[in-house]
Amino acid sequence: MNTSSVTRITGLASGLDTESIVKKLMDVERIPLNQLKQKQQKQTWLLDSYRQLNSDFLAFRNSTLFNMKLSSSYNTFAVTSSLSNAITGTGTGSAIQGSYSIGVEQLASQAAFTGNVNLDPTKTLEELGKITEATTFSISVTDPTTLTEGKASIEVLPTDKIGDVVSKINSEIDPTSKKSLGLQAFYDANLQQFTIRTKATGDKAKIDLSKNTQDTLDFLKTTFGLDTSNPVAEGKNARITFDGKVIDNLSTNNATIMGINFSFKSTTVGTSTVTVTRSVEAEVKNIKDFVEKYNSLIDRLNKLVSEPVYRDYQPLLDDQKTDMSEKQIEKWEEKAKSGLLRNDSILTGVLNKMRGIMNSTVSTGSSYNSLSSIGIGSKSYQDRGKLYIDEAKLTAAIQADPDAVQKLFSQVGDTATGANGLINQLSDEMQTAISQLTKKAGVTGNSQMDQSNVGRLLARIQNDINRQTDRLFRKEDQYYRQFTEMEKAMAKFNSQSSWLYQQSGGM
Question: Which has the closest alpha carbon to 39: 451, 469, 459?
C-alpha cells in the first residue's frame, strides 16, 4: 500500500503516539483485505491442484490406457532362435505361433570407401609428409529413403590432423538444403584404417566422388589410402531366405515378417530355426502393470476427497511469514492446503464411475466377461475401489480363452449394450473428467485468470483486492488528516491559553 501523502503532525501538541494509533486502526481496516488475500491464495492452490489432476488424467489416458488398447498388450509372444548370434526377434501383436526356417546370405551394408594408411593422430598432415598445400575434394551422397542427393566440398589443410579431417566430413552439410550429408568418417590407429561411409544402408545408399579430377582422386588415395579406382561406392541390401522364399529388398538389417520383428546380425551357414510361442507371463505382467497404475490413481483420488480440513490453518500473510522459519511455513501450509478437494464433486464423480466400470460386465461371448471372472477385484468395501490380482486365476483365464480376456479390456463397441471394453470405458470417463477440470480450472500453461470458473473467480478477487487497497490508502489519509487537524486545533488552543496566561500577568 502506498504511503500517505498527508503532512503528518504526530503528537506534538497532544502527546499522543499517532503512528501507533493509526497503525492499530488500520490493522482493523485491513481485515477484509487480508481475508481476500487468503481466499485468493486458497483458490490459487485449488487451481494448481485441478490443473495437476488434469495433466495426470491426460497422461493416464494417453499412455496407460492407450497401451492397454493395443493388441500387443495381450497377444504377447516369445521368440527363440537356434542361431541367436545371427538372428534375433521379438513378437508383435500380429505374430503367429509356429516355427520358421531363416537363413541370412547377405547383410545390408553402407556405401563406403576404406583405405589402409598409417597416420599418427598427433601430427599434422604436413608433418606426416602427406600434403603441403590446401586441397578440396567434392563428395555427393544419396539418401536411400528420399533418393535425394546432398553435395558438398571439403577442404583439407596441411595443418589438419586426421581427427580434424574426420570432424569436417562428419559435420558436413549440403549448402543448398542445409541438411547433413549423413556421412560417418573414422580413423582406427590400431587397424591403420581410414573409412568414409554412409549412415544409411541398402543398395540405394551411394557416395559419389566422380566429380573430382584425377589429381584429386589420386590425392585421396595417396593421403588416406582410399581406393578410388571406382569413384562411386554403393551399399547393399540384405538377402535372406524365409521358409525357402528369397527376400532381397531389405535396405536394413531389421525387418518385420509374419508379425515378428527380426534383427539380422551376421550371415549364416545354413538356416536358423525361429520358434514363436505365446507368452502368457508377458500378458499377465502387462495387466499387472495396468492394475498397479490404476490403483495408484484410485489411491490418490481417495486421499484427496477424504483429506481432513484444518480450519484453524489459513494461508499465511507476508507479515506472518516474517516471524516463522521455512520449516514452520512448510508445515503450516501443508495443513492449510489439506482438504481443498474434500468431497469435490468432480473427483467423487470420477471415482464412482471408475469403480462402476471396473465392476461391470462386458459382452465377450464367454464366461470371462468381468474382472472378477479372471481373478481381479476388491477384497472389501474398505478397499475403496483398489484392485487385487489372483495371478493363478488370471493365468488360467488367459490360457483358456485369450481372446475373451483381450475383449474384456480392449473391445470396441456400444457401452449401452455392454459391448465396450473396460479400457475404452475408462478412456471415455477420463476424457469427460478432463473436460470438466478444464472448464473448472483451465490447463497448465494458461494464465491463472483465464476463462475457467476458478480463473474468473481469481480475477474478481484481484479486482476486490485492488479496490480494498485503494480504500485503505484513502482511509489512512483520512485518519492522518483527522489527527493532523486535531493537533493543529490543540496547538492553537495551547497557544491561546498561553497568551491569556501571559495577559493576566501569570495569575
Answer: 459
Beta carbons of 55 and 441 less than 8 angstroms apart: no
Give the DSSP per-residue string, 334-381: HHHHTTTTTT-HHHHHHHHHHHHHHT-----SSS--STGGGTEE-SSG
Is residue 185 assigned to a domain? yes
- The sign one gets for the Cα dihedral 406, 407, 412, 415 is negative
Residues paired with 238 in a beta bridge? 250
Closest CA to 461 of 472, 474, 448: 448
Overall number of domains in the chain: 2
Predicted confidence band at 15 (pLDDT cuts at 50, 70, 90)? low
From 220, 246, 278, give the residue that closes a domain: 278
In-domain check, residue 220: yes
Question: Which 3 state secondary structure label does DSSP give 134?
Answer: coil
pLDDT in tens, 283-312: 999 999 999 999 999 999 999 999 999 999
178 and 207 inside one domain: yes
Return mean pLDDT, the chain: 91
Q: Would 41 be classed as within a structural domain?
A: no
Q: Is 210 exposed, middle or buried (CB count within 10 Å of its CB: 0-12, 13-18, 19+)?
A: exposed
Domain identity same for 96 and 137:
no
pLDDT (average), residues 261-271: 95
- CA distances (Å), 269 to each of 102, 240, 241, in order? 11, 12, 12
C-alpha cell at 80: 527363440
Indicate whether 181 belongs to any domain. yes
Q: Which domain holds residue 168?
A: 110-234
> How far is residue 354's CA from residue 30's CA, in Å, rounded to a whole number?
46
